[in-house]
Structures are given as C-alpha cells and as structure tokens.
Amino acid sequence: MTTKIIMDTDPGIDDAAALTMAINNPAIDLKLVTAVAGNVTVDKTTANALKIVNFFGKGDQIPVAAGAAEPLIKPFEDAARIHGESGMEGYDFGDNYGHPIAKTAVQALHDAIMAEDEVTLVPTGSYTNIALLFKEYPEVKSHIKQIVAMGGSISGGNMTSAAEFNVFTDPDAARIMYESGVPIVMVGLDVTLKALLTDASLKQLKDMNETGQMLYGLISHYNDVSGGDQGRPMHDVNTIFYLLHPEAFTTKDLWIDVQTDGPAIGATIADVRGAYHDGKTNAKVCVDIDAEFFNKWFLDQVAQMK
Ligand code: BDR
Ligand code: CA
After folding, report:
1. Most exposed of 69, 158, 184, 300 (fewest Cβ within 10 Å)?
2. Is 221 a catalytic residue?
3. What is the value of pTM for the model shown?
4. DSSP 185-248
C-alpha cells in the first residue's frame, strides 16, 4: 500500500534530499509539492522544487505550486548562509526545469487534499502555507490523516538558543498548525541533530550514480555545521524516514505550545508535566532515532535511484 503525501517545502539542500527520497520511493505517492519562503525567497524555493522534480523526469506527474512569500506577521529572514544564494548551491540543474502550476499553493493544497479521503502533509519549511490553508479552508482538516512536520525542538534551538529555524521563521503559523486539531508528528532537532549523515556516507554518494553525484554536490555545499565533525544534519529527510520506518524512532505524546513573541519567539514548549492542558496532547514528538540505520537507509535508497 502506498502512502499519499503532499510536501510543503523550502528547498533548501536537506529539503532537496527529502524530495529525492519521496519522489523515488514506491511506497510513497507524492501528489503535490508546494513551496514557501524560508531558506531562501519563494521564487527560489519554487524553482528549486521544480529542479528536483524535473531531475527525476516527474514534471508532468508531480505539480509544483508557489506559496507564501512572507511569514504571517514576523519579518522574513532567510538562511542563505546555510544553503547558498540560490538555496541549492553545488549542482547545475540547467535552465530547463519547467514552471509552477497556475494555482496558488493554498488553492492547490485545498484541491489536492479534498480529492483524497486521506492524505499526509509533510511540511519541511515554515508552516505559513498550512496556516493560510486552515484559515481559508478549515474543511480540509478532516481529510488530513496526519502532519509529519520537520521543525521545533524540546531541547533548544538552532536559530536562537530556544527556537528551531522553521518554527522561528513563522511562529504564528506554527501556533495555528499546532492548535488545528490535526494529528501532528513533530520531527524536530531532538532527532535530526542525532541522525547525522557521516562523512563516510557522504563519500559513498559521490561515486554511486547520477543522483548520488547530485546529492554529493549539494550536501558538500551545505553549511549546517551544527553536527560538528560527527556529520551533517539532513533535518528534512527525517520526515520521509519516519513515514517509512516509524520503528526507528522513539516518540512521546505531548502538548506543544508555540511562543510567538519575546526572546524565546519560535520556541516549541512541551507540557511535559501535563500541567497546562489537562493531560491532553496535540503532537507525537520524536525524541530518539536510530542514527546508524538512518545512514544505511539513506545510502540504500540512493543506490536504487538513477
Ligand atoms: C530546518 O531549517 C532549514 O534550514 C532546513 O531546511 C530545515 O527544514 C532545520 O532547522
Ligand atoms: Ca527545510
């Protein structure tokens, strides 16, 4: 059985790797890709999503729609220092990578979700498009099986000492998503900083095949050094790994509140004592991961690609 998913993304080098895994796995049916401002501006994240979809010859099967150019309230700050000026430095995809569809991301999300009984949303950028979708079309919520979202942390941030980048980018959108009532799996820094792609794994990609060369080029230009000399965090790829191998994760059911102002803006606060929400929970929070299996899985996947 295949899992129908929609990816909402801001490629971004780790987003590109996540798209690569989703596009090529027969157990996943990627229905739509929507782009959002995040790592770089939305014109660039849209172009980058198209580059990956077209690299795998899927331009006529997987539509790409452009989404929000700005967070809901907070001013936009990119992460080009991590992902390069284009957001996907390190590989030449040429100039011929197609165009986004004429619909906005919100419209495309609405139409694609309503066409299914059940679909999984996989956001790997800020949650602006999802918040706008829920505000305009609340009826989509009952068609979403779950949201498997990269972002947040219950153990400190990577953007500030408290906030992870995707939630920091648009905390107001994150709050809307966490308060939506849709089941959420939080794939945050608590696991993505453990599942580091080691240098040994990266080296193996280089000579594997065309996809390996493409990923090697991108990942070699990826300036996320938060893993130190242990390896590089492939944050967004963990969402697809979770979908395919939930047994590789340890999770805890918790209530997540999002801080939307002050010095801890963008922090995701877990109600670990069950003190503020009558013991209710709104998220399955990933707290541990089998990092060795992640590396093995990553290489095995790419080995089967073009
Ligand atoms: C997240 O921030 C972005 O730079 C990455 O693509 C990932 O989605 C990690 O904090
Ligand atoms: Ca991302």
Report:
1. 300
2. no
3. 0.96
4. EEE-HHHHTTSEEPHHHHHHHHTT-HHHHHHHHHHHT----TTGGG-EE-TTHHHHHHHH-GGG
Band of residue 225 on the pLDDT scale cut at 50, 70, 90: confident
φ, ψ of residue 237 in degrees (nearest 5):
-65, -25
Identify which ligand lies nearest to the alpha carbon of 188: 1
- Pair 196, 293: CB distance under 8 Å: no
Instruction: Please name which of 102, 98, 93, 53 lies closest in space to residue 218, comparing C-alpha atoms.
Output: 93
Write out the H or E segment, with its range, that includes residue 174. Answer: helix 171-178
Of 99, 110, 221, 235, catalytic: 235
Among all ligands shown, which has an atom nearest to the Cα of 233?
A: 1
CA of 297 to the centre of ligand 2 (A): 20
Token duo for residue 98: 């197609």
Residue range 129-169, pLDDT digits in tens: 999 999 999 999 999 999 999 999 999 999 999 999 999 99
Tokens matching residue 256? 């997540």
Q: Which residues line ligand 1 (CB under 6 A)?
A: 12, 14-15, 39, 79, 82, 124, 150, 158, 164-166, 235-236
Q: Reply yes or no on whether the pLDDT at 181 is more than 90.
A: yes
Crossing angle between the packed helical segments 210-220 and 199-206, to the nearest 10 degrees: 140
Å from CA of 219 to ligand 2 middle: 14
Q: What is the mean pLDDT of residues 85-95?
A: 93
Q: pLDDT (tens digit, 9 = 90+) per residue, 23-41? A: 999 999 999 999 999 999 9
Mean pLDDT of all residues belonging to the chain: 96
Is residue 65 scored above 90 in pLDDT? yes
Terminus-to-terminus CA distance in the chain, angstroms? 23
Mutate to test the pocket of ligand 1, among 9, 124, 154, 226 (most ligand atoms within 8 A of CB): 124
